[in-house]
Amino acid sequence: MLELAGIIILGIIAQWAAWRLKLPAILPLLLIGLFVGPVSTLISEDGTKWIEPIWNGEEGLFPGESLYWFVSLAISIILFEGGLTLKRDEIKNVGPVITKLISLGSLVTFLGAGFAAYWIFGLSLQISLLFSGLIIVTGPTVISPILRNVPVKRDISTVLKWEGILIDPIGALVAVLMYEFISVGEGAAFTKTALVEFGKIILFGSTFGFTFAHALAFIIKKKLVPHYLMNVFTLAAVLGVFVMSDQFAHESGLLAVVVMGMVLGNINLPNIKELLYFKESLSVLLISVLFILLSANMNLVDLELLYRWETLALFLVVVFVIRPIGVFLSTWGSDLQTNAKLFISWVGPRGIVAAGIASLFGSKLLIKGEPGAEYITPLVFMIVLGTVLLNATTARLFAKMVGVFLTKSEGILIVGASEMPRLIAKYLQKNGRHVVLLDSNSNHIRTAKEAGLMALEANVYADDLTDDVELSDIGYLMSLTGNSDINKYAINRFRKQFGENGAYRLISKREMDNIAQLPKEGLFSATDDFFNMTDVTRQYPTINEVAVSSKEEYMAIGKLVADDKNMIPLFVKKKDNTLEIISSFMQDVDVKSFEGSHLIYLGKPIEEETLAKIAESGEPVSNSDDEVIVPIGD
């Protein structure tokens, strides 16, 4: 009982320490596991481990193969949660790159690392290729913390995120085939067995995952399960699909749960966000326990096997030769620049799937007496610990060296996804800005996505919003909801994280009625709140551009727009096509030269005659039947 409680407590402490230090949690978890496992035998009075994962006849937590059953079930939940986060609309620009990375890149790693282990360590070809199959995976559990700490271009973070999750079942598949190869022996028998196993895994994994994902979606939509049981029901369904698929084809369960997660994540479900929160919390607990258990399960004898120069040589070849070759071949002909390819080559940490399956297959082959099997687990753990340590400590520095580090984030986060924010977001997107809409209303999010906009269904009060990898390049924040309290909260809470270049919100009715109360972060107009802007959007759902050539002309047209209840100023588009957000104080716009600029506004088009008079004289001008306005700033 003490050991079980200790593992959970130490795991959560390690997770907290990793969060505070902005490190992948796997690093402190592995170090803790090694300390309470093999290292503790050096300082304990009787020479035993403080935590013994497998029952050895006198002590231990898991009898027989039950530890690896637990590992398999836990990995299935982790991969399902990863699959839920994969969205189709994220890979429009980098889809082909990801496809090549998980196919051609995997092949390069499999063959390259296999022959490296064969030549450098002198292992048999079968064991070498099993090792290389295990280190194909890059580990989603360690990629995300690194990307959260290193702001890079969105295409780069998307490539690494998708590769980390999608490549897990591929690495497991390759490792399974090699394990089958070693089990049945060389020759013609392997050829037939490999083809049969490969076909069964793909067939049953994809079929079970796709079918049961839609079945679960049907149950959720029809509310056949009460809300309070939904999370645990889904958990049971995931475990059931994993086990059922595995019964038909060994190790196909990993593929099944990834497919199941991907399908569910791309179906419009009412409780998908709540389900994701539950799975994330569960994954944190499972990862904490797994890494401590698996690293504690190693022995000093295993670590002593690595005390040779060949270990360092193999690590250097895998990280600095094979990974870059795979990345550059996979990205050949893509739009990714060389510096992006270099950074993707540098960041390739291995994670829980590699460690878990290595422990499973390594132990099974040791029992069978396979020569060289004792190297499998320690070599894989060496790659896992080495790559995580390298990437966690150098990724930020390397990103700056190769020029992919975002020194100024130009993305725009818009809180609110109703009709008016969607119209503004669409204009910004057409003008080359990365825009993300955030709303808790699923209908608003669905409509935004159908319009081709990137949108996240999330609560602005959620704790994990600042950890979202997709928001790594956000530098502007605009809160455009109809709730003034939410607008104020969003600005106050996320100004530092997402508003380094500017954080703005719509003014409230009370502020609009009292100009003296106008906040510095007031957005667009001193006379329009959410409801006014929504009314204008419904009557005139267009965003117009008017050329301005001087500060006086800008202020004159701006005054005309501001005084017309059917027009609302939004931005100034400069000569180089960059956009400046207009605050409630129109004079504060940061434009040094207005030559070649445009005033962007929402609402009714201005008559050409009116624009001509302003351009010619700067005299007081009226727009149709509107009242006379006077240019300001003179």
What does this structure look like?
With 634 residues, the protein is α/β, with parallel strands linked by helices. 59% of the residues lie in helices and 7% in strands. The protein is built from 23 helices and nine strands. The protein has helices spanning 2-21, 26-36, 66-84, 95-121, 125-134, 140-149, 154-184, 188-221, 230-248, 252-265, 272-296, 300-304, 309-330, 338-346, 352-368, 376-402, 419-430, 442-450, 484-498, 509-513, 530-539, 551-563, 608-617; strands at 411-415, 435-439, 454-457, 474-479, 502-505, 543-548, 567-573, 579-581, 597-603. The strands form two sheets. The protein has a five-stranded parallel β-sheet, with helices on both faces. It has a four-stranded antiparallel β-sheet with strand order 6-9-7-8. α19 links the parallel β4 (474-479) and β5. α4 packs across α7 (154-184), α7 packs parallel to α15 (352-368) and α15 (352-368) runs antiparallel to α16. The longest helix has 34 residues, at 188-221. It is elongated. The termini are far apart. Mean pLDDT is 79; it is low at 620-634.
What is the averaged pLDDT score?
79
Strand tally = 9
Biggest sheet, in brief? 5 strands, parallel
* Helix/strand/pairing category: alpha/beta
* Strand order across the largest sheet: 3-2-1-4-5
Shape: elongated
DSSP summary: helix tally: 23
Q: Helicity, in percent?
A: 55-70%
Approximate strand percentage: 5-15%
Query: How far do the termini sit from each other?
Result: 80 Å
Radius of gyration: 29 Å
Low-confidence stretches: 620-634
Output the keywords.
634 residues; alpha/beta; 5-stranded parallel β-sheet; 7% strand
